[in-house]
Amino acid sequence: MDPGKLNVVAMLKQAGLRVTPQREAILQYLVDTGGHATVEEIYQGVQPCFPHMSVSTVYNTVKHLAQVGLIKEIHVGDGPSRFDMNVRPHHHLICRKCGILFDFYIDEPPRFHLPPEAQGFQIEDYHVEVQGICPACRAASGE
Amino acid sequence: MDPGKLNVVAMLKQAGLRVTPQREAILQYLVDTGGHATVEEIYQGVQPCFPHMSVSTVYNTVKHLAQVGLIKEIHVGDGPSRFDMNVRPHHHLICRKCGILFDFYIDEPPRFHLPPEAQGFQIEDYHVEVQGICPACRAASGE
DNA sequence: CATCTAATTTGTAATGATTATCATCTAGGA
DNA sequence: TCCTAGATGATAATCATTACAAATTAGATG
């Protein structure tokens, strides 16, 4: 038996979600590719195995997966939503040229200096989006 | 004469943009309201004075204003783009309940711990988006 | 001050991402 | 095995944004 497949089934069950072939495939795709996929990419990725799967199903499924915390929805710039397997809190580097995305981590949370009118704001989560030029693009344009 | 109006005209000229009544009105609106406006809000805001202004003009103008650096485009969550007069680098607190937006500042940039594959990434800018509950919503639901 | 031209405005159509709808189908419990 | 709440899939609807083209205008030039 495919241990990976067993794994995603277990993940779905444990999260209290119904196990359907479509959900297995989508979660498996996210597990395999490891992060930052858009709905379109997921849709294309599962096409070979599920040629009949609807985009609606992808939207629906990622919404559910995000609700139970198996994945996280991230918004980068003005692009479409991306869905990230990585549940450990992390942040993103985006290349302005090619749009490639890297994860990175911040050991100690930065000290936020809140303005007076926001005193008492209850911080629940934060996300840092770093813009710049990735090594590959620097190499490409630098020479 | 309206000193405010003279001001936005000067800003446009200095930025090398043609001065049109529409641009004056849009920039004036942004100066007056002071930040975070969406295209829709700008459009509504200038309606009283410019009932004939097209949404296209708003999109066009904010794009130009952002290009010359008079304003900054920000993306918060999955909502529409917002345009911010505040050019000083700053970050945002978003309330999960009511969506209100606060600015805040970070004195010393956090130390980013880049992964191996991103070594050499040239950081140009960064933006921190903090999610949580604003004081007003806490007060409203807390009691 | 009249003229000219390139930039701007405007209305509309087109696109892209996402949500809504609803009839059909199915996972999984009784 | 049967039932039903929930899931799927096809399509339409919505929302933000961009593309387009014809009419207008800012501002430079003579």
How would you describe the overall organization of this protein?
Two copies of one chain form a homodimer. In chain A, 20% of the residues are buried. In chain A, 38% of the residues lie in helices and 20% in strands. In chain A, the strands form two sheets. Chain A has a three-stranded antiparallel beta sheet. The first copy, chain A, has a three-stranded mixed beta sheet with strand order 5-4-6. The longest helix of chain A is centred in the N-terminal third of the chain and has 13 residues, at 21-33. Chain A has helices spanning 3-14, 21-33, 39-46, 55-67, 135-142; strands at 37-38, 72-74, 82-84, 91-95, 101-104, 122-133. The interface between A and B is large, with 40 and 40 residues. β6 (122-133) of chain A pairs antiparallel with β6 (122-133) of chain B.
For the largest interface in this structure, which chains are involved and how many residues does each contribute?
A-B, 40 and 40 residues
User: What portion of the residues of chain A fall into strands of 2 or more residues?
Assistant: 15-25%
Helix content of chain A: 25-40%
Q: Look at the helices and sheets of chain A and give the structural class.
A: alpha+beta
Low-pLDDT parts of chain A are none
Q: Going across the major beta sheet of chain A, what is the strand order?
A: 1-3-2
* Shape designation of chain A: globular
Q: How many strands appear in the DSSP assignment of chain A?
A: 6
Order of helices and strands of chain A: HHEHHEEEEEH
